[in-house]
Specification:
This protein is of the alpha+beta class and 240 residues long. It is 23% helix and 28% strand. It folds into two domains: 181 residues, Aminopeptidase (3-Layer(aba) Sandwich), CATH 3.40.630; 34 residues, no CATH class. The strands form three sheets. Strands 1-2-3-4-5-10-6 form a seven-stranded mixed beta sheet, sandwiched between helices. Strands 8-7-9 form a three-stranded antiparallel beta sheet. The protein has a two-stranded antiparallel sheet with strand order 11-12.
C-alpha cells in the first residue's frame, strides 16, 4: 500500500471542505445539504475531501434498503482528491470514513452514492471499496447553458429559477450509476444488485470523462486506480 497507510482522515469544517471541493471536483460545485465532511491528510496537508449528507429525495432513496429510518442512511455527495496522494488512497480513505461513521454514528446503516458516467467516471473507487451496483440509467438531468457552456442539473436549474430555459437547452447525454454500501450487514437491499459487467453491456463505462470498457480498463491492473500515482477521478472536466 506504500504511503497510503500514512494518510490521516478526520472531520473538517464545511468551509474548508467546500473550498477544496470547488477547486478539485469536476463540477466545481458543492452540495448544500452536505453536513459531514472528512479531510484526507498526508504529511499534515489536505489532499482529499469526502462530503456526506442527506439525499435530496430521501423519499425515493430510503426504500432501497428495507426497514430504514428517515435518518438512518447517508449519501456520499462529493468526493474530491488532488493529484498528490499515492496509489490506493481513495479506497483507503473511504474505508476509514466508513469506520468512523460506524463508530461515532451507529444509527447510520448504509451509504448511497452516484457515479456520473456522463462527465466523470463510472465508479471505479466505489467498486474497489465494496459498494454494490444497484442501478444504471440514462442521465436525463443535465443540460448545457448556452450562455456560458456550464453544465446544469435540473434541480440546480430549479433553485436558480431557470426551469423554463433549462428545458430548451441542449441535453448532455450519458449515464448515472447508483452504488450502495451496507454498514449494517443485516440490512437487505430491496432492488436488484447488478453485476459490474452490466456497465459494459450498457456502454456506460467512463474514466476521467472518457468512454471506456471495463474489460480494457482492468487489463494488467488489479487495483482501484488505473494509472501510477493518484487516480484523479475528480479533476475538473471541460466540454469539448
Amino acid at each position: 500500500m506504500g504511503r497510503a497507510k500514512d494518510i490521516r482522515v478526520k472531520v473538517i469544517p464545511a468551509k474548508i471542505a467546500n473550498a477544496f471541493v470547488k477547486k478539485w471536483h469536476y463540477s466545481g460545485k458543492v452540495v448544500p445539504n452536505s453536513n459531514l465532511h472528512f479531510g484526507c491528510f498526508l504529511d499534515g496537508r489536505l489532499h482529499g475531501v469526502m462530503s456526506f449528507g442527506g439525499s435530496m429525495r430521501k423519499d425515493l432513496i430510503r426504500p432501497l434498503v428495507d426497514n430504514t429510518g428517515w435518518n438512518e442512511f447517508l449519501e456520499l455527495n462529493r468526493m474530491a482528491f488532488d493529484t498528490v496522494l499515492p496509489r490506493n488512497s481513495e479506497s483507503r480513505c473511504i474505508a476509514i470514513a466508513i469506520r468512523l461513521i460506524k463508530k461515532n454514528a451507529s444509527h447510520i446503516k448504509w451509504i448511497v452514492s452516484f457515479a456520473d458516467s456522463t462527465q466523470c467516471g463510472d465508479g471505479t473507487i466505489y467498486r474497489a471499496s465494496g459498494f454494490v451496483l444497484t442501478q444504471i440509467k440514462e442521465n436525463l438531468q443535465l443540460r448545457i447553458n448556452p450562455k456560458n457552456n456550464e453544465v446544469i442539473q435540473s434541480m440546480q436549474a430549479f433553485h436558480l429559477g431557470l426551469s423554463k430555459e433549462f428545458h430548451k437547452w441542449e441535453k448532455l447525454m450519458g449515464f448515472q450509476l447508483r452504488y450502495i454500501y451496507l454498514i449494517d450487514k443485516s440490512c437487505t437491499i430491496t432492488v436488484p444488485i447488478l453485476p459490474f459487467s452490466k456497465i459494459d453491456e450498457m456502454h456506460a463505462g467512463m474514466y476521467k470523462g472518457e468512454k471506456r470498457l471495463q474489460a480494457d480498463a482492468h487489463k494488467g491492473d488489479s487495483g482501484d486506480q488505473l494509472e501510477k500515482g493518484s487516480a484523479n477521478l475528480t479533476r475538473p472536466l471541460h466540454l469539448k
